[in-house]
Design a protein that fits this description.
Layout (H helix, E strand, L loop, with lengths): L10 E2 L4 E2 L30 E6 L15 E2 L12 E3 L6 E3 L5 E7 L5 E3 L1 E3 L5 E2 L2 E8 L6 E9 L12 E6 L7 E7 L9 E6 L11 E8 L2 E6 L2 E7 L14 E9 L15 E12 L7 E3 L2 E2 L4 E4 L10 E4 L9 E3 L5 E3 L2 E5 L10 E4 L10 E2 L6 E3 L4 E5 L10 E4 L9 E2 L3
């Protein structure tokens, strides 16, 4: 269970919705402009390839898939003076048998509140792509549903340096508004950067399902509701502060009760309240093509190669003389993956130690399969480990296997990617 870092949030400025984190602040009064009723979908809507999803199929009353989800538990206020005790009980989180995950906030017989908070930390961690969920939110004064993400290096890197991307938040007293924001070093708490989106008809978002998403690329994030893009943030928007969003993040779903921002339940608040989640999906943008398909070459011109042109999980990645065969054809995905034979270049067992082998593995959206190409050093860095791709023993010979190693800017860590 994490400590009481809870960053979330709201203060509206005239230009954006600045969401309050651990600070004890009251939301401002600036109104959010509604998106046009017939706003065009995001440009990438028909160009995305599904990378990972949880469709929440299963018998009524069963637990969400433990391969994907952790339960965070506790009643310590989560840094926001929240009232609920998060539990792992099926009374607070369960499948409904109709393809939905249901997170239920309850008022118990003793007057206390329970709910659920679920994360994909160390299970599904991803950099870039469209992160999307179809949700029917709960309603009522003091009810605070959210779909959001934290940097995968949390808590080793503390908040806000780890970064936070809030895909959707709602507070019950504003049924017609949802909020999207980021927090990072120098722009957290009251200085978080984001915007709000008003239901086109001014109706309550709790009246039906809506699709909440971010389209996330290196250096930029765009928020949308039901395909209507309403805010884009890029590196320039954080000023001279660090941009901490070019790394894997994990996802969080929760329903809080009370807190500094939403206020507390009153006589109008009815319990139980439920958040229904139809699905959570990760897509690679532009069909996963990203920077293109072709050879990846080392600084001496030799090619990155799938050993023996084998396609089994665990096949080593190596250097080989360039020969034009399929084992040397790599697709640079906009989701941060490098793909061959429709599988991903992967750090074995999600390891982070120097010397961990690099292999081919079925794409699974984890941090072990995320790579960032540095335009200056030309290194391929795995953000989860903080280490760079290089040949074992630093030898650029035919047949040399690949490992991760401390990033040092040397020639053996330089890679040329397809355009």
């Amino acid at each position: 269970m994490r400590t009481q870092y809870r960053p979330r949030r709201s203060l509206l400025s005239t230009a954006a919705c600045l969401l309050t984190a651990a600070a004890l602040l009251t939301p401002g009064t600036a109104a959010a402009a509604p998106a046009p009723e017939a706003a065009a979908p995001t440009a990438e809507t028909n160009q995305a390839a599904l990378v990972w999803s949880d469709e929440f199929e299963g018998p009524a009353g069963s637990a969400p898939d433990p391969a994907n989800w952790n339960h965070e538990t506790g009643d310590h206020g989560w840094g926001n003076n929240e009232l609920q005790n998060y539990t792992a009980s099926r009374a607070n989180s369960a499948l409904d048998g109709d393809g939905n995950l249901v997170i239920t906030a309850r008022r118990e017989a003793d007057g206390s509140y329970t709910s659920a908070r679920m994360t994909t930390q160390n299970k599904v961690e991803n950099a870039y792509g469209r992160i999307e969920a179809r949700i029917q939110i709960p309603r009522g004064q003091g009810i605070w549903p959210a779909f959001w993400m934290l940097g995968a290096d949390f808590p080793q890197t503390p908040w806000p340096d780890s970064g936070e991307i809030d895909i959707m938040e709602n507070i019950g007293r504003e049924p017609h508004l949802v909020h999207g924001t980021v927090h990072g070093p120098g722009y957290s708490g009251a200085n978080g950067i984001g915007a709000s989106y008003m239901h086109p008809q001014g109706w309550s978002f709790a009246d039906g399902f809506h699709t909440f998403a971010v389209d996330w690329r290196p250096g930029s994030i765009t928020w949308s509701v039901d395909g209507n893009a309403y805010h884009t943030l890029d590196r320039a928007d954080v000023g001279g502060n660090p941009w901490v969003f070019d790394q894997p993040f994990f996802m969080i779903l929760n329903v809080a009760v009370g807190g500094n921002w939403p206020g507390y339940p009153d006589a109008t608040t009815q319990f139980p309240q439920q958040m229904l989640v139809d699905y959570v999906r990760i897509y690679s943008l532009d069909g996963g093509t990203g920077g293109g398909t072709g050879t990846i070459t080392a600084s001496n011109g030799i090619c990155l190669d799938v050993a023996g042109a084998q396609t089994a999980n665990g096949t080593p990645i190596q250097l080989a003389h360039c020969n034009g065969n399929q084992a040397q054809q790599w697709t640079v995905g906009a989701d941060g993956t490098l793909r061959a034979f429709d599988k991903c270049m992967d750090v074995a067992s999600g390891g982070t130690a120097a010397g961990t082998p690099v292999q081919l593995w079925e794409c699974n959206g984890t941090g072990a399969q995320q790579w960032v190409h540095d335009s200056g050093s030309q290194a391929l860095r795995n953000p989860q480990s903080g280490r760079c791709l290089q040949p074992q023993g630093r030898v650029q010979n035919d047949g040399t296997r690949m490992v991760i190693a401390d990033c040092d800017g040397s020639a053996v860590q330089r890679w040329n990617l397809p355009g």
